[in-house]
Every structure is written in structure tokens, then in C-alpha cells.
Amino acid sequence: MKAILLKEFGAPDQLYLGEAEQPQPNSNEVLVNIKATALNRADTLQRKGMYPPPPGASKILGLEMSGVITAIGDKVTNWKVGDKVCGLLAGGGYAEYVTIHSHCLIPMPEGFSFEEAAAIPEVFLTAFQAISYLSKLKKGERILIHAGASGVGTAAIQIAKAKGASQIIVTASAGKHEICKQLGAEITIDYKTQNFEEEVLKVTDNQGVNVIIDFLSAAYFQKNINSLTMDGRMVMLALMGGIKVEEFVLTKILTRRLQIMGSTLRARSLEYKIGLTKDFSDFALSKFATKELQPVIDSVHDWKDVADAHRYMEANKNKGKIILRVS
Ligand SMILES: NC(=O)c1ccc[n+]([C@@H]2O[C@H](COP(=O)([O-])OP(=O)(O)OC[C@H]3O[C@@H](n4cnc5c(N)ncnc54)[C@H](OP(=O)(O)O)[C@@H]3O)[C@@H](O)[C@H]2O)c1
Asked: What is the full DSSP assignment across 69-100?
């Protein structure tokens, strides 16, 4: 099969369209002919050799896909050849074919294109996990979502709105505020020119927020803690702002009974991913049908232009998902 491969770890120009062995489904898996895949920040790290795939996963980049089932394992009863699906992968999405456990698939929502469906799995499952499973956002609570216009951020805004958040506050660079507002953010903060902690306290009557979805880690740690209210929860999903906090005042963790959580989706067990896929599908499929939830697509690229797509993501230019059309 054709696949995007790596000459060696490094810059985007190490990526090329080559030939790889086509995977075969085991008893509980299906084989999917991929029509579209989507970029994730993790792909750029894997490309540089900084994020190896978990044991047993394909070495080919790509954490999600949409496509058509072309073969099923002998124990698979929930899908048939020809079904259109999308799903989360531990790797192997930048390819013509991939195998995936039959219970890790999501049916392609009615009326969706392959490009739209490929924009769902990674960011919506990540955001759903952070909001529903980890922070357990309740109706009427306030939430701060960093990197609001990122793939995960755009999904998190919509899920927080669907869950009944009373106030959705995001940080993003100024040119990305409009899309965040369209999706449901009430307050947008330009983190480049404004102090987000001061802004959060201003718009919440000095109360702070109940939940924070964070990707900036060290750079935002103290300000995040200062922005949380009593019994506040913070979910850390990335280390984009560094891993080391030089000085930190712990008091508020204790006095405000704060909970600080971290998570990576890729390393979760198969059983966890199956449960998450089911719970997310139950929550979201009807909402995709009514457009209450919508994947946000920045741009669609031919997969031959994958290096340009990686450069575009690394320049922080995207609002929502960057899609690769696989052909
Ligand atoms: N833990 C997990 O399970 C999990 C799963 C999926 C993704 N992730 C991680 O989540 C992050 C987002 O992923 P993605 O694919 O959605 O990314 P993305 O679409 O590439 O968006 C990342 C955005 O972060 C914003 N940003 C950069 N520095 C910022 C800052 N100081 N403050 C606020 N925003 C800033 C940039 O937008 P601006 O122009 O607004 O700066 C950038 O476009 C990545 O680090 C990814 O690795 C984690």
C-alpha cells in the first residue's frame, strides 16, 4: 500500500510518499481503506523522534482516520464491508489501509464528508475525556480552555457548551477569537497582550473558574492555580509551555481543595479506548446530526503535500483541524 514514511527523524521534508506493507485484521479488527486523515501536534513530535509509538502500534504517523471498511475479522459482528467509519488510532493513519479494533470505530455521521469525519476522533475524544471523565464539568460551572482555536480547543468549547457550562473563557491569539466565539466561547483572551489570570478574575467577579483545560503546563502553572475557584479541577493535556516550574506557591492547592490531573490518550489501554469511544458516540452522534457539535476544519491538503501541512501546523497558523486527503 501507499503510505507517508520518514527518511529519518527530523524536519518536515523527511516525510515522503512511499510503499509499506498492508496490515491484515485479526479476529476482532476490521481493515479500513482510508480516505482522509488529520494532523495532530503529536505527529510533529513523532516526526522529530520525540514521541515514539506505544509498543505494538504502527510506526507510520497518523492518530485518526475516516474511510470505508474493506474486510472484517471472523469475530466482528458490529460492522460490514462497505460501512463508512472514522476512528482513533495508536498510529498508521497516514496510509491507504489501517486495521483497527471493531469497537474503536465511530460510524461516519449522516451527511458528513470523509474530510469532516477525519476531523472528529482525536480532538473530540480528547476533549470529551478531559471534560466528562476527568474534570467532570457540571452544568452551570465556568471553564477556561487554553489554545481555544486548536483542534482540541475547538472541540472542548463545543462539548463544554453542550454540557451546560455557564461561562466559557478561552485564550488564543487575536486572529482566532472570532471562531472561538462562533463555537460558544463568551470571553476570549489574547494571551500575547493580556494577562489571562487577571482577565479571568475580572470576568468571574474574582471567583475564578471551576475547570481549566491546559496545554501550556509550566508556563501557565501558577497563573492557572490562581485562576481556579474552590474545588477547582485542572486537566493538563500537553507540555507546550515547558516541563519545569522554578518557583511555585502551593497554598491555593490546599486551601481551595484543587485537583490537578494529567492525561495522554494514546497510551491508554484498548479497554479504556473502547469505553471512551462508546460513551462519546452515545453523547455526540445525535449532536453531530443536529450540528450542535461540528468538526472545525482549517484546511484540506493532498497527502502528497504533507510536509507543507506539518510546517503550517508548526507555525501555529491553523484554526481547528488540518486534513490530509488520502488517495
Ligand atoms: N494528552 C492528550 O491526550 C492529547 C491529545 C490530543 C492532543 N494533545 C495535545 O494538545 C495540544 C493541542 O493539540 P492540537 O492538535 O489541538 O493542536 P493545534 O491544533 O496544533 O493547536 C495548537 C495551538 O496552540 C496555541 N498556542 C500555542 N502557544 C500558546 C499559548 N502560549 N497560549 C495559548 N495558546 C497557545 C496556538 O494557537 P495560537 O495562535 O492561539 O497561539 C496553536 O495553534 C498539543 O500540544 C497536543 O499534543 C494532547
From this structure: EEEE-TT--S--TT-EEEEE-SS--SBSEEEE
Q: What is the mean pLDDT of the chain?
A: 97
The domains located in the chain, with CATH, are: 2-120+268-325 (3.90.180.10), 124-262 (3.40.50.720)
pLDDT (average), residues 161-181: 97
Q: All 3 cell numbers of residue 143?
A: 471553564
Quick check: pTM over 0.90?
yes
Query: Which atom of ligand 1 lies closest to the CA of 154?
Result: 16
Neighbours of 123 (CB within 10 A): 25
What are 185-214's pLDDT values in tens digits? 999 999 999 999 999 999 999 999 999 999
pLDDT tens-place string over residues 252-307: 999 999 999 999 999 899 999 999 999 999 999 999 999 999 999 999 999 999 99
What pLDDT, on a 0 to 100 scale, did the predictor assign at position 267?
A: 87
Distance, CA of 124 to CA of 127 (rounded, Å): 5
CB 111 within 8 A of CB 41: no
pLDDT bin (cut points 50, 70, 90) of residue 327 is confident
Strands 142-145 and 105-107: unpaired
CA distances for 289 relative to 37, 110, 120, 293, angstroms = 21, 7, 13, 8
* Closest protein CA for atom 17 of ligand 1: 150
- CA of residue 150 to ligand 1 center, whole Å: 5
Q: Best substitution site from 64, 88, 135, 150 to test ligand 1's pocket, by max atoms within 8 Å of Cβ?
A: 150
Here the cell at position 73 is 475479522
State whether the Cα torsion 62-68-70-76 is positive or negative: positive
